[in-house]
Design goal:
19% strand, N-acetyl-gamma-glutamyl-phosphate reductase (chains A, B, C, D), homotetramer, AGPR_type-1 (chains A, B, C, D), EC 1.2.1.38 (chains A, B, C, D), 348 residues, amino-acid biosynthesis (chains A, B, C, D), alpha/beta, NADP (chains A, B, C, D), Dihydrodipicolinate Reductase, domain 2, 12 helices
Chain lengths: 348, 348, 348, 348
Amino acid sequence: MIKVAIVGGTGYTGVELLRILATHPQVDVTAITSRSLNGTRVSEQFPSLRGHYDLAFCEPNIEQLCACDLVFFATPHGVAQAQVPALIERGVRVIDLSADFRLKDIPAWEAWYGQEHAAPALAQEAIYGLPEVNRADIADAQLVACPGCYPTAIQLGWIPLLEAGVVEPAQLIASAASGASGAGRQAKTELILAENSDNFRAYSAAGHRHLPEIEQGLRGVQPSGASPAQVTFVPHLLPMIRGIHATLFAKSSAGLSPTELQTLFEQRYKDEPFVDVLPPGSHPQTRSVRGTNMCRISVMQPQDRDTLVVMSVIDNLAKGASAQAVQNMNIMFGLTETLGLESPALLP
Amino acid sequence: MIKVAIVGGTGYTGVELLRILATHPQVDVTAITSRSLNGTRVSEQFPSLRGHYDLAFCEPNIEQLCACDLVFFATPHGVAQAQVPALIERGVRVIDLSADFRLKDIPAWEAWYGQEHAAPALAQEAIYGLPEVNRADIADAQLVACPGCYPTAIQLGWIPLLEAGVVEPAQLIASAASGASGAGRQAKTELILAENSDNFRAYSAAGHRHLPEIEQGLRGVQPSGASPAQVTFVPHLLPMIRGIHATLFAKSSAGLSPTELQTLFEQRYKDEPFVDVLPPGSHPQTRSVRGTNMCRISVMQPQDRDTLVVMSVIDNLAKGASAQAVQNMNIMFGLTETLGLESPALLP
Amino acid sequence: MIKVAIVGGTGYTGVELLRILATHPQVDVTAITSRSLNGTRVSEQFPSLRGHYDLAFCEPNIEQLCACDLVFFATPHGVAQAQVPALIERGVRVIDLSADFRLKDIPAWEAWYGQEHAAPALAQEAIYGLPEVNRADIADAQLVACPGCYPTAIQLGWIPLLEAGVVEPAQLIASAASGASGAGRQAKTELILAENSDNFRAYSAAGHRHLPEIEQGLRGVQPSGASPAQVTFVPHLLPMIRGIHATLFAKSSAGLSPTELQTLFEQRYKDEPFVDVLPPGSHPQTRSVRGTNMCRISVMQPQDRDTLVVMSVIDNLAKGASAQAVQNMNIMFGLTETLGLESPALLP
Amino acid sequence: MIKVAIVGGTGYTGVELLRILATHPQVDVTAITSRSLNGTRVSEQFPSLRGHYDLAFCEPNIEQLCACDLVFFATPHGVAQAQVPALIERGVRVIDLSADFRLKDIPAWEAWYGQEHAAPALAQEAIYGLPEVNRADIADAQLVACPGCYPTAIQLGWIPLLEAGVVEPAQLIASAASGASGAGRQAKTELILAENSDNFRAYSAAGHRHLPEIEQGLRGVQPSGASPAQVTFVPHLLPMIRGIHATLFAKSSAGLSPTELQTLFEQRYKDEPFVDVLPPGSHPQTRSVRGTNMCRISVMQPQDRDTLVVMSVIDNLAKGASAQAVQNMNIMFGLTETLGLESPALLP
């Protein structure tokens, strides 16, 4: 059994980790921290977990964390970079679900997040936890930076095209939408149901923090010599709880036929347990991945014109956060990659 | 491995059976029937099941069904009573999720459902599949009639009070509300999102088909000599997908204190794996049982007056239908009762 | 033109007043106060009002308020009782949408709201603004206490029965549900969409602040000598924005036939412009009153038993708050009672 | 008073016309037709209209229609082209809300709609009812083809850029999303709440019928000599009732600064009563136009790159259908253009 701790267990990625790990046959959750809820039982805070955990939230304690095989950080940005170095030094493995170790370009991180980075060297060593790209490195990693939700959906949708170099990399357009759980479990007026139900809007269209992560990831898979991927990214807020849908537009530069396009995607992901390329003509639905680690993708070439459309859906809390973290854990500890992640989506 | 077939697999209770059984370690689903979708792959109809089933829907075939250990009927009322007798005769075990075998009072069944009953004798032999009441009989049953969704939530909420004889049985009031999946996967204008989102209404307040089932079940647990339970039942339609919430009112006749009330409920359900009595003062939420076989219950005595309030929540498709059917299956086949039903609710 | 001011314009009842008054032909909104948004234009805070108001929020100023014919208080409880006395003294008329002046029983008010009442004498003089009961007194009132949302829906549903003395007043049961806007525009985690969408739950079942208001109102219409109305009231939170649905249960004590019941309701409300008794067998829907001052009511006697069921729907922000306040204003200023309140509901 | 009839009054655009016209001071609705509901009172079918209309649905009757000043067609495509010619011949004015007379390219219409056009000559004479482009022609028109919902939102968003010739017309990308009422009031399984709530998906990405209308409209405003506008258009279905949000991407070809962009939009629409250009940095929300004839627009240039982003929101049933039809009626009959369309949006 792998002994794991979760730092920051009161947000949605924390409770999602607890939900998934509750039935994982090789994991024992031994600690979950929260300063504000210190002493409160997990099952009191989250009645859905009654009967699954006897744990209470505790204050973060370095000795307790160091007694674990693996520590998940499910904290706001800024926390992991302060606490992870001590754990790494002591040989503990870490999966960080926050944005702290995703970017290699530290000045960019500091500009987008508006603060100095506390562990820039560690950020260079961290492995970006997108298994479909970095599986081998993840297996050996001590520190994995789990990708953001939008970056996961968007990268998986575009990777086949950019790896193959068949679209113009400087004219990428991503129109994506997320369920409200993506904004976290925060007490903000702008998040209450009466402000968001029966409503739809874009946000951060002038610049969203996930943009540099998306571009870094795409550039990483481009053939050498290609002009660097450049993305216009507009996120939207959906009146629903879970799910990300990315609608991706790219200009074809290689004249692939619809059949070749479809084959390109199917071949790229044929061995991936959590990426499902849908049959030609399909439109993926967010509910088809609700609660799961799946990413479902379709590709189309409308009107036989040169703009290609890729649609990619994930569950923002699952493949977009906590389930992908468990997938990374399975890889790091040599377990079957799908362990604990086998249940179908909750539909309807 | 238990070989099972599902008759009528295109409705919500059918796809929910498929979802649950996909990860059940002791079950092999060998056939799923649908006349209208004969030949269509299950994963084409329900993309959430891609990768989980290779099956295609087939026409019902008695020989194929008889080769199974167990057949689930997930069909509209009227179908099972026509097809089950032949299976029973051949020794196949059956769990019927429809209303066909729930009522012992055949004239009542015929009045509420507006048709002649095709297998009245079999209805007498059928075991009502509420494990919290009939566990022993279910274990030996050849035919189990799985309870309706409202009746499950309402009976579990009132059983402790009626068994103990501490409320006036002739003044029971149930105000209950169901998610829209309770109305099934039907092409009806009155069910479309634009008619039901941001809306709430009662329906069938003058008389709902679940009323006689509720009263039969409650009367079955009353002490002999008690005046028979009589219920006023008003169901409502919620602008959401899954979940039943029953708010139950009863007049206290025995002067129990709040502590005695709480103890009564806790004692009654202390060995039940799927009934969770919440701490005093709690209000159960439907999302706390989403996708699970749990029923969560609270009991209160507002203002210390003599009207008791019980709140009971289930997932209408799970404990209210397909997960309860799997619980019954586990009991019938001597498996651990919770097998395949261990995952926590999907929250948020 | 009536010159009006709104104190506390940033909550939902404030913006709903602005919405309704924007097209009221006899009203000029001259001031709207908010300490926190002092100087911010109304149209900046609420883009739906762009083009309708040039006003900016201002700090409360007694001289400015006293220059108005009428001041609406759309503030949390506690505010109006502190500020209204000075206005009353200066001869300004006031409609308070908060709970401050609704209860005549000051100790009860203080017990339920947990603070000392700052203007108990004024509370005795205030007229309870339910036009269907107090129209004449409202016309002459200087201070109107606008009813709460649940109390409006529930009283209108039961008044015909209690006035006529045809039900047992000590066994009244109200199961009611409200859209999330009823909880106000507050930054609370428990109100965010991801916590409430696809979810249903009761709250404050052990005792809600609207209970004494409901009982006071019902007792006020009972024939003298009747035993006082006593209500068990369980409110629920709906995963939607607007609407209250009250499902009301009462024990018939006079043996009225269904036809007599229907007639009783139709006669009681035949001259009321904003109460609509639906035909026998109907179930009112909250969306049928969305955005309007209407209350729609149905009455039934299920199974010909002695429990009567009344269903009553309103829009909690309209007839349950701001539109009813405008109805009261029309009455107070001798205008046509329906002025500015004529638009049909927004359906779908 | 203008005497109007509505042909096809049982769909959402029909009931929306009834809602708007109920308070229009210059209109008398004298007939509303429906074969299937012949004889049913409008207020029985739509309880939200109780008290507003005494009308019953009637069978279409040419004499009755010809006695009107104006006939609205709120019918599925194919109906108006069969019935309108006889009315035009008799001198009746017609506003058609369907797609029948929107396209000038009849072979394209026949290809997209899969049937022969019954009145191709009349289609050439029809005026496309987008007042922001065709106001003068609408005033004199006998037959107005009211624009589709997506085309309205998308054209209004791009018109300033295409008229000015400051973007590359062959690389236009529209990612748009609609509330479920856009699919109409139809009994289809794919439209029921349990299939669409908490879900998001694209549809018709390979080609939607509104595409040729959008391109025709955009080409109509381009300067002569420009290469013709070509659009990639992906529509999505939102889990909500009303609202369209169009997120529009175009490649800047003229190097406009953000300030020049903003000014371009503000100048273009400065005299338009129903187009509201938001301040720089804003994101329009669909709820800000709920139930109104407004279109709210923002324009941005993310990261100072050359892809411009325009966001445009309307209510699909209002500015996207029935309210725009009333705006057209006001223009045709010389009324104040905003008459009957003054109410602010229903928010929250």
